[in-house]
Design a protein that fits this description.
By secondary structure, the chain is an alpha/beta fold. The protein has 15 helices and 19 strands. The chain is elongated.
Length: about 500
């Protein structure tokens, strides 16, 4: 949420100025407080709806400037469709729709958190607020020139009218913390690589100390001593040295094993010696979306004082093709002791995850490990931009992730694992090679590669977020190139299953 947006909760009362936003169903019915506030303007809505063929369908909107009978400057009626069929995450979408209909030039808006079947619950009103905050996000810090009509007000005041403001504020507090984590993740993904290189990423992650997160940054000397040669090999061609950042939140019982979240943080990926085509390479500033999600999640858990122990570990590197860069045919020894033949230097993310996963398992012995990575184009071929690919060794963890995805709208789809895919990454010269050398099943062989560095006793899930982490299909609560995908999913997983 931008600093210029001030959001508060108040009673149901028709606003004296600004934009007035209300909800109706697919029969153009309003809730009792909304109908009372509209008064004579309700008839105006009926006439305008007929003229504009507005039916109250979910996602539609009717706008009436200078509405007769109201003091507001503009009336916006947002369609909620068949309200009996709404599920939890639909309320955040309604909030996003409402925010999208607030003209950028207007400084005041009032939204009634009410549907025809009654006042929204405190939780649903808080979801509505979260959707509005998420939709309000914009990454425009590098724009120095704007047309006069594009300049937003210095401050935008938003009031959400509810029946019990105290209850909604209580429900809103943890959601606002999670929104802050999403915003952090989006900011990190959207930053250009000349600004956000590995050391700068580590510096920004270190700012979580003020939230109570213990942060440890491992530099090249420390990583060399640990034996993380797979990770270091990726970054050895860059002028920017690699880092691993360890973030720990201790909100649970002392001595309890933590939940572990791992992120791929390739701040820019040229492909290395196996260089990518020039077209679209600028998007590779987002190849650290997994690390951004983990960092945002750790902020969210700390900000809402989650009653759980959690550790976030991110490997941040830059994959560049200079004279010192890793070559196809090189063999590197990972921290686990297993050797890897480099077939393609553009299959670099799995090398980062290999060392970081092994390190996390050995040091923290967590309850589970979940890694997130913009890893393969193959997962986009399989699932498009609608789901992240989920590879998991534990049915309970997979089911919990699936449920959390359905609850938040950040959905995952379980993909197969199996020894038959392992054969594709066996090497003649080393313990394994870093790619299967085939177009077929590329997301699966990548997951099989990472699996070789996971302790079999620890439940593990790998989320391939190549289709959702950046440049994904925008929706009602996200109009940003960097989506911040995964923060809400994983926070929900923790809240529903691991906090006591």
């Amino acid at each position: 949420m931008p600093d210029a947006l001030k959001l508060g909760f108040g009673p149901f009362a028709a606003p004296a100025k600004g934009v007035f936003i209300v909800f109706c169903d697919d029969a153009l019915k309003f809730g009792p407080a909304t109908a009372k506030a509209l008064g004579r303007a309700a008839a105006l809505v009926t006439r305008a709806a007929k003229a504009e063929r507005f039916t109250g369908k979910n996602g539609s909107a009717l706008e009436i400037p200078v509405p007769e009978g109201l003091k507001a400057d503009r009336l916006v009626v947002v369609g909620a469709g068949k309200t009996a069929k709404l599920v939890d995450h639909d309320f955040a979408k309604l909030g996003g729709l409402a925010m999208g209909k607030w003209p950028g030039s207007a400084s005041e808006a009032t939204v009634f958190a009410e549907l025809p079947n009654g006042v929204m619950s405190a939780a649903h009103a808080a979801d509505l607020a979260q959707g509005m905050r998420l939709r309000a996000y914009a990454f425009d810090r590098y724009k120095t020139k704007r047309k006069e009509d594009e300049k937003p007000p210095a401050r935008r005041n938003l009031t959400i009218a509810v029946s019990d403001a105290a209850a909604v504020r209580k429900a809103d507090s943890p959601r606002a913390a999670v929104t802050g984590g999403v915003v952090l993740a989006r900011d990190l993904v959207n930053e250009p690589a000349n600004v956000l290189y590995p050391a700068e990423f580590a510096r920004r992650a270190s700012a979580l100390k003020k939230e109570g997160v213990a942060v440890e940054v491992l530099d090249v000397k420390a990583l060399t001593k640990l034996g993380m040669r797979a990770l270091l090999g990726v970054g050895q061609g860059s002028a920017h040295e690699s880092r691993v950042v360890v973030m720990r939140w201790s909100g649970g019982k002392k001595g309890d094993a933590p939940l572990a979240f791992i992120g791929k943080g390739v701040c820019f990926d040229t492909g290395g010696i196996s260089i990518k085509p020039a077209g679209g390479m600028e998007d590779m500033k987002g190849d650290m979306a997994g690390a951004a999600c983990v960092t945002g999640l750790m902020q969210a858990l700390a900000s809402r004082k989650a009653r759980v122990n959690a550790v976030g570990v991110v490997g941040v590197v830059e994959n560049m093709p200079d004279g010192n860069a890793q070559r196809p045919g090189d063999i590197v020894k990972s921290m686990s002791g297993q050797t890897i033949e480099i077939i393609n230097t553009d299959a670099e993310g799995r090398l980062v995850l290999a060392d970081v996963t092994w390190y996390t398992a050995q040091r923290f012995k967590p309850k589970f490990i979940i890694d997130l990575a913009t890893l393969t184009g193959a997962i986009i071929v399989a699932l498009g931009h609608e789901h992240a690919g989920m590879f998991c060794t534990n049915d309970e963890l997979a089911n919990r992730l699936t449920k959390a995805g359905l609850a938040t709208g950040e959905t995952v789809w379980r993909m197969p694992l199996g020894p038959e895919y392992d054969k594709q990454i066996d090497s003649k010269f080393a313990d394994m090679k870093n790619t299967g050398g085939s177009r077929w099943g590329g997301a699966i062989t990548a997951a099989q590669f990472i699996k070789r560095f996971v302790d079999e006793k620890i439940p593990w899930a790998h989320l391939d977020i190549a289709g959702t982490g950046f440049d994904s299909r925008q929706n009602d609560i996200n109009k940003s190139w960097g989506s911040g995908w995964g923060v809400r999913l994983l926070d929900r997983l923790v809240a529903d299953n691991y906090e006591k």
